[in-house]
Write a structure and sequence with these properties.
The protein is of the alpha+beta class. It has helices spanning about 1-55, 65-90, 90-95, 105-125, 145-160, 190-195, 205-210, 225-230; strands at about 100-105, 130, 140, 165-175, 180-185, 235-240, 245-255. The strands form 2 sheets. It has a 5-stranded mixed β-sheet. Strands 1-3 form a two-stranded antiparallel sheet. α1 (about 1-55) runs antiparallel to α2, α1 packs across α4 (about 105-125) and α4 (about 105-125) packs parallel to α5. The longest helix is centred in the first third of the chain and has 56 residues, at about 1-55. The radius of gyration is 23 Å and the shape is elongated.
Amino acid sequence: MSTSFNAVAAATSDERFARMRAETALFMRDHVLSIVSHDLRSPLNAIHSWAYVLERKIDPNDPAGLRALAGIRSGVEQQVKLLEDAVDGTRAETKALPIERAAFQLRPVLERALDELRRSLAEARGVSFSFDSPLDGEQCDGDKERLLQAVWVMLAFGVEGSAPGTVVTLQSSIDGGFWRTEVSHTINAAALTDAELPHAFEPFARKQVLLPREAGRVAWVLALPQRVALAHGGTFEQSGAGEGEISRLSLRVPLIAV
């Protein structure tokens, strides 16, 4: 009976792990598309504006110049349409994240995320967890499943970037009407890129974690907790990205809908 129960539990854990990997990849894809859409529109707008400047400079009797100007405008229009159809349309699924609110206890969500990551990833990588929280029966009015996913990704991020034998710390408390959860670990580049270790994130995403971040952007794989936080009227922050630095991920959402 015990062997059968353990087999079922292991299969369930594997299924959840696969589902969370897929959810993380979906949000990461849409996050990258959002960056692409934003970063491409600025130069396209500039090209469009300069085209008007050129129009006033080009001789109306210069057919080659007029064809060149028409080609510039046509190219800009094609790129904008591509962004609208392929990029903005594709990311519509997570752009406006629906939230199903209901009251739920906070501590069980944290314990479940810890338990799932411990069995599916942390133990195999030789990483342990430290859980520090005074929470007992406190509740939050929010989407329990989405917030569980956010904490799961934060913990998985910590495990992925931690060397074997080290500890990922999870702290959670109530702070002025907000539920605040922080995951911290010491960044180890070798652990992120070691192909021999089990991973939750795709190789290119793990490499991107170590790249410099622009304008306070979070790493791609953290798109899910960021979107969940924003959908709840909260915030998500990431600090630390270099080898040997302390990485801190902070999720903060209101206990009551605002």
